[in-house]
Specification:
By secondary structure, this protein is mainly α. It has five helices and no strands. α2 packs across α4, α3 runs antiparallel to α4 and α4 packs antiparallel against α5.
């Protein structure tokens, strides 16, 4: 990391900035992690739909059990990678973490989605696994399976909004952004 020696008029002085090669590395990491996160959400949506609509109980069972076993860890890894790379990019570039509204909103979305994964989604996975296994034996626990629609729908909507923010960069500076 190098010290910034010249600050453009009206720009906020930062203690350091990412050198261009490192900025590119972290930007690529951020984009790849976001793409992976979106891809995992699409797979989750497909598995939820298979679990709901497949004619074969074996396929439905496998879809729910796959959701339970393989959803949270890869999705959380992608989300935390996005968070880490986004924080580094925010701290090491002119955009800052809380300087521009679009960056602050993306940061907030990421933190909320990762928190929901850990506090809401992950604790329900053992029940979903039992539900999937029970489909084959007829001993399904009482589980509101319709609620499985919401994680991929909410996450995909929020992640699409984050991509739009990253491209459009709307709203300008926050109140403290010009300091």
């Amino acid at each position: 990391m190098r010290r910034r020696t010249h600050v453009q008029p009206g720009a906020r002085q930062q203690g350091w900035s990412l050198p261009r090669p490192w900025r590119r590395v972290w930007l690529v990491c951020h984009i790849v992690a976001a793409g992976a996160w979106i891809g995992i959400d699409v797979i989750v949506a497909v598995l939820v739909l298979v679990g709901w609509f497949a004619d074969d109980l074996g396929q439905r069972s496998l879809a729910y059990r796959a959701l339970a076993q393989f959803t949270v860890a890869p999705m959380l890894a992608a989300g935390l990678t996005c968070l880490l790379s986004g924080v580094l990019l925010g701290l090491g570039t002119k955009w800052g973490l809380l300087r521009y509204w679009w960056v602050a909103v993306k940061l907030g979305l990421n933190v909320v989605l990762c928190t929901v994964m850990v506090t809401v989604l992950a604790p329900g996975m053992p029940d979903l696994d039992r539900y999937g296994a029970g489909l084959l034996t007829g001993a399904t626990p009482d589980l509101r399976i319709a609620s499985m629609f919401f994680p991929p729908a909410v996450s995909l909507t929020a992640l699409t909004f984050a991509v739009i923010l990253a491209v459009a960069k709307p709203w300008g500076l926050t109140r403290g952004g010009d300091k």
